[in-house]
Design goal:
The complex is a heterodimer. In chain A, 66% of the residues lie in helices and 0% in strands. By secondary structure, chain A is mainly alpha-helical. The longest helix of chain A has 38 residues. By secondary structure, chain B is α/β, with parallel strands linked by helices. Chain B is built from twelve helices and seven strands. In chain B, helix 4 packs parallel to helix 9. In chain B, 38% of the residues are buried. Classes of the chains: A mainly alpha, B alpha/beta. At the A-B interface, helix 1, helix 9 and helix 18 of A face helix 1 and helix 7 of B.
């Protein structure tokens, strides 16, 4: 079930009403309802994988208990590795099996050893990367004694299958969400209104920005040779807007929906395109994933505490892993590698923590220096997006070759100049800039005005959503 | 909670009113499905030759040029299941029917409207032909079947600018593909071939089943079923997937062998059609349609 479907438009109010009318009295009822909603939500995509979801839940719950109860360090570690092995095994099988088999066959082929690789027609269970990471963080936190295991299986099952976060995150941590699940949620009007506002803004990002850009992006990446350099440059800009609108829009809808049920979920995006360097970009882009890798991979590897070379190795590991997490394709690995290369000078010159606060805090506009830094960072990010979006290295190669040709300075193709999309992107960036100090851009916007102005503002957003809807695009991060 | 819910409802009320009004206005507007339904009901009893199928019939066959009373009941993207549903719905009316013309195009046996890119067209069969074979709720409404901006543009064009052209002649032929429009045939042929390529053959058996139903119905009434593949430009022909083409030919060959009243005629690379006859890669313009209808007419006479 997609957030941007009629199915969800019916599903959400039904679950909401049942939750606050029938289940509001008792914690167990709330859990049962959320569990049923989560399994229904997931089962709508492919009911066969409900078993996998349940197995993953049971495995991590049981492993967590065993780790906490283990008398010796060896026994603790054994249970941890059992959990990691099975979780990563599933992820590896569904997501990377064919990639590894094909790569191995190619490698053998390069040594003149021709094989017929045994490829499988594997369907990737939606959201497997997300709920696997949910579960892994739980057992790892127990292992490192940051949390105590829950004794309530139902509560843990809701933590894993909580439908707003189930298929594309944000990747929540047990120490943040589980305590919220241990108390009965109380209806809070202000929280509900806030949730609805965030959902509205999420839909705007997804439908008005991301879906509108998708057609132009697809056109250019399907046949880059047919476009001149400036059109391809525009296509990369559109993709930058598309992926941000798509994923941060999804996150806004997810976080807003969680708020409707009384839960606070950590933010996943914080205006990444206003970053002044790559380090800041990664503190603002897909925060739940980058902090996950930081806490569970980078720091255990030694982080930046060891020698220079060790730290550089760790940086590359974390970025390459982050790229690989997105999918079994060399293009994602190159995307991750490029970001590592971008990040390296900042690390070497110790300037990676230079920009910890939002740009031009308390000011209307950035200074020239900050504006230039934002632009350079954005261009670097855009260049890397080419690899992220291209279906394979060959397409990426043609794209870059064609883009950086003399035709970069020609007028873009007319088909790549949609006026309404430019207007919407311009307005969107302006609103994002104005609201950059808040959790989401329209969080506090117009709240100081009367109900008429506020409603007119919401109607304007809604009208744009309705006008641009119907382009039928799925969420990009579902495939990861 | 009640206060919040009433506020949400109050907020959404104007929107619901607008949506309901738009639905009413859209249903009041004339459209090709409504028009063709009325024309079909008017001509069904006298029709001796019925054209079914997709745009390869709709734009390529102008019944005006047949020697016998004919009607074109094809629609864009109409797949073989909807050919059958239409035939079944009006089966009592076709009292003089002698021939059924049905295109077997590159995608015909692989595509099903229900999951095709233009599946929104199902709402036209539901709302205007009263054919309810698909249970997807949004297809019961104009406003929910198409992107709002298209509906807004339809409403503005019809009610504000008073622009409407039926685009269909009295015998159901689509008149909108005119020779005055010059398209890049090579490019459009390539694009159409890519568009009509199917990675899987999930609907192949099912479509053959519907085709057999049409044939059985026709055989019972001694009606001849003439299957044909209409002309297409070279880039379309060359860019078709050989497996998909061969699979179709093989199945059709079998159908013709097993059913004496069925014949198949392939005009895809007919030398009689030049670039001037085409509107795009796989559709004829009005000149080509006239030529093609004469060709089919000669075939029937023989």
């Amino acid at each position: 079930m997609l957030f941007n479907s009629l199915h969800f438009l019916v599903f959400l109010p039904v679950v909401f009403l049942l939750y606050w009318q029938l289940a509001s009295k008792k914690l167990q009822y709330q859990h049962l309802l959320l569990l049923a909603a989560g399994y229904y939500f997931y089962g709508c995509w492919d009911p066969r994988f409900l078993l996998l979801l349940f197995f993953s839940t049971a495995l991590d719950y049981f492993s967590g208990k065993q780790i906490a109860a283990a008398a010796t360090k060896t026994s603790k570690r054994t249970w941890l590795w059992i959990s990691i092995g099975i979780n990563v095994g599933f992820l590896g099988f569904f997501k990377y099996y064919n990639f590894f088999i094909e790569s191995f066959a190619t490698l053998l082929g390069s040594w003149s050893l021709h094989t017929d690789p045994w490829l499988l027609n594997i369907i990737l269970p939606v959201g497997i990367s997300f709920y696997t990471f949910h579960g892994l963080s739980y057992v790892l936190d127990i292992y490192h004694e940051r949390i105590q295991p829950t004794t309530n299986f139902l509560q843990y099952a809701v933590f894993i299958s909580f439908f707003p976060l189930l298929v594309a995150g944000p990747i929540e941590r047990a120490n943040h969400l589980l305590p919220q699940l241990s108390t009965t949620q109380q209806f809070n009007t202000a929280k509900m209104k806030d949730g609805l506002r965030q959902i509205l803004w999420g839909f705007f990002k997804k439908i008005v920005i991301a879906d509108s850009c998708a057609a132009y992006v697809n056109m250019a990446f399907n046949d880059p040779a047919a476009f001149n350099g400036s059109s391809l440059a525009l296509a990369v800009f559109f993709f930058a807007m598309q992926i941000y609108g798509d994923f941060s829009g999804y996150s806004d809808i997810a976080i807003g929906t969680a708020r409707l049920f009384g839960f606070d979920v950590k933010k996943n995006f914080a205006y990444p395109y206003f970053s002044r360097d790559i380090a800041e970009f990664w503190r603002r882009w897909h925060i739940s994933l980058s902090t996950w890798f930081r806490d569970y991979v980078y720091i255990p590897l030694g982080g930046s505490r060891g020698s220079r070379w060790l730290s550089i190795r760790n940086i590359f590991i974390i970025f390459l892993l982050s790229g690989f997490w997105h999918g079994a394709n060399v293009t994602f690995i190159i995307w991750g590698g490029l970001h590592a290369v971008y990040f390296l000078p900042l690390f070497l010159f110790n300037t990676n923590r230079q920009h910890m606060h939002i740009v031009a805090e308390g000011k209307a506009w950035p200074g020239i220096k900050d504006a230039a830094k934002i632009l350079i960072t954005f261009l670097l990010v855009c260049f890397a997006w080419i690899f992220f979006r291209a279906n394979n290295l060959q397409v990426a190669g043609v794209f870059i070759q064609q883009m950086f040709s003399a035709s970069l300075f020609e007028m873009p193709d007319r088909s790549m100049l949609p006026l309404s999309v430019f207007v919407m992107i311009g307005l969107f960036l302006l609103i994002e800039w104005k609201g950059r100090q808040h959790l989401y851009a329209i969080e506090k916007m117009c709240l100081q005005y009367s109900i008429y102005i506020r409603w007119a503002w919401y109607y304007a957003i809604l009208a744009a959503i309705i006008y641009f809807s119907g382009q039928g695009q799925s969420f990009i991060y579902f495939q990861f | 909670m009640k206060k919040l819910l009433s506020k949400i409802l109050l907020f959404l009320l104007p929107l619901l009113i607008i949506v309901a009004t738009a639905e009413l206005l859209l249903r009041q507007m004339p459209n090709e499905y409504k028009l063709k339904k009325n024309l079909l009901e008017k001509h069904a009893q006298s029709t001796e030759l019925l054209c079914l199928g997709s745009s390869h019939s709709y734009y390529n066959i102008n019944p005006v040029y047949f020697n016998i009373p004919a009607f074109n009941a094809a629609h864009s993207s109409q797949t073989v299941n909807y050919d059958w549903f239409l035939l079944r719905k009006y089966h009592d009316s076709f009292i003089n029917l002698r021939y059924i013309l049905l295109p077997i195009s590159y995608q015909s046996l692989f595509e099903k409207l229900d999951d095709a890119a233009e599946s929104w067209r199902i709402k036209n069969y539901k709302l205007y032909y009263n054919i309810h074979e698909n249970n997807y709720l949004p297809y019961n409404f104009e406003v929910l079947s198409m992107a709002p901006r298209f509906n807004i543009s339809r409403l503005v064009n019809y009610y504000c600018r008073q622009q409407y052209s039926p685009g269909v002649n009295e015998l159901g032929y689509a008149t909108s593909y005119q020779s005055t429009v010059k398209n890049d045939l090579e490019k459009m042929g390539r694009e159409a071939a890519a568009r009509n390529y199917f990675k899987n053959n999930n609907h192949f058996k099912e479509n053959l089943g519907y085709l057999q139903k049409i044939i059985n119905w026709a055989t019972e009434r001694k009606i001849q079923v003439i299957l044909f593949t209409s002309p297409a430009v070279e880039s379309y022909r060359q860019n078709r997937d050989t497996n998909q083409v061969n699979q179709s030919y093989k199945a059709i060959e079998q159908l013709v062998k097993n059913n004496p009243l069925v014949s198949y005629h392939n005009f895809i690379d007919s030398p009689d059609f030049t670039a001037d006859d085409f509107y795009d890669g796989d559709h004829l313009n009005e000149i080509g349609a006239k030529k093609f209808t004469f060709t089919l007419n000669d075939l029937i006479k023989k």
